[in-house]
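Re: that chain you flagged

S.,

Sorry for the slow reply, it's been a week of failed gels. I finally had a moment to sit down with the sequence you sent. For the record, here it is as I used it:
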Amino acid sequence: MVNMSQECSHDCSSCSQDCNSRDMHEKLHPKSSVKKVIGVVSGKGGVGKSLVTSMLAVSMCKKGYRTAILDADITGPSIPKAFGLGSERATGGDNELYPIVSNQGIQMMSINFLLENETDPVVWRGPVIAGAVKQFWSDVVWSDVDYMFVDMPPGTGDVPLTVFQSIAVDGIIVVATPQELVGMIVQKAVKMSSMMNIPILGLVENMSYIKCPDCDKQIKLFGESNIDNIAKEYGLQVLARMPIDPAIASACDSGTIETADTSSLNEAIICLEALVK
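Prediction finished late last night. Pasting the structure tokens below so you have them in one place:
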């Protein structure tokens, strides 16, 4: 049998292997338990994917669920800073790593927890990065997790493909911003998930508007959104329209994201809760 982890070029168009007939998912650590895995994806960087990942985990934690974040954005990890855990370092035993736990009990693993200094760059080639993501799944002891959120790297390249092939993802949430260009890029992410046979739970539009502090009027800095048209085209649900909120930005910078107002994600949380009913 072909060793897919070593032989797979990820170029499905030129491959004779029937991957759909195989279970290529990596096994969890024997001590781990994870019920639902949600991938948070974007077609490009800079749309607030990590922010949405963090706020989804915080929201579900507030609802009483045991939550976790697997930071698969190896070259641009921002999850530790948002939670004020940039100086933490992961520990482990024989063939296992232990996640860092936030103030509110959210378990997480990020490459920054394994580097000597959090500002050290990760100058690795794609296969090495993909291998690290696999190890975050298989070597970390995830304790009784109800919902794990995977903060995916932007785009539709090697690492997102590896995550989809290696981890049993129950659904994905696509993050976008209102610009027309980003709308086109969202379609790429949607089509990739369809190719990988992973259901799309819905779309989250970040930076949708900013609220005037004097009159509460919603000001659309990027003009009218195209997300409703995209959602309709693919039969998807718009789960949230998140505003540009200086308070949330400040919470990320100060490492206090767990205190931020997550009410804009209420509809997304209802959708996630339905997965276990």
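What I noticed first: The longest helix spans residues 180-195.

Talk soon,
D.
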